[in-house]
Amino acid sequence: MGSGQSSDKLHCNRYLNGQGPPSLVQQANEGVNEMYRAPNGFQPEGQMTWVILHRDLPGFPDDNTLQLNYIFPDGIQTEKHPHPGQSYAGLRLCAYLPDNREGRKVLKLLDKAFKQQLLFTIATNEDGEDIITPSFIPLKTQPDGGSTHDGYPDSDYLKTVRKLLRDKGIE
After folding, report:
1. Distant-in-sequence, close-in-space partners of 125: CB < 8 Å, separation ≥ 6
2. What is the pLDDT of residue 41?
3. What torsion do the CA atoms of 65, 139, 105, 92 make, to the nearest 10 degrees?
4. Which residue from 55, 53, 43 is spatially nearest to 110, judged by alpha carbons?
């Protein structure tokens, strides 16, 4: 392994030597190296919809709320996933954005990322179960509770999401 004659072997050695792609935490904190940009298709089949809620979010008192709904049924992993042929648990998730100009921009970007199958991935949880999880965007899954509880208020959230999406080529 690792001979200069095979790029597959070279990539394997990079992983073994700890030089593979950065972790998702590193990507979020430091930006994404384009060399490791994920191709389309790693996200399992699912559906994204959204509705307007006639209530405000903390920090956005004059705006309604956009509720994004993600639904993924249980399924079987493909060759693009960590354990091909094994099952994974589905997911039903709601996320929230303010219904204003900036929130609508982020909604369009999230929709684009979802359609390019970049927004979610399959990962193994601490119990050894394969589950669907957001891949690189921290979603606001609570309308309130603050940033430490995946909610609002969070004055930098929309700017952070736009930067993370831009780093993945979603503009």
Report:
1. 131
2. 53
3. -70
4. 43
The three state secondary structure string of 94-156 is EEEEEECHHHHHHHHHHHHHHHCCCCEEEEECCCCCEEEEECCCCCCCCCCCCHHHCCCCCCC
Kindly tell me the sign of the dihedral angle through the C-alpha atoms of 79, 83, 87, 88: negative
Tokens for 53, please give them. 């809620």
- The answer, yes or no, to whether the previous bond of 138 is cis (omega within 30 of 0) is no
Q: How crowded is the C-beta side of 40, counted as CA atoms within 13 Å? A: 7
Beta strands 75-76 and 120-124, pairing class: unpaired
The pLDDT assigned to 42 comes to 84
pLDDT along the chain (171 residues), means of 10: 40 42 46 37 90 97 97 94 92 97 97 94 91 92 92 95 94 90
Structure tokens belonging to residue 109: 């970007």
Which tokens hold the place of 7? 């790029």
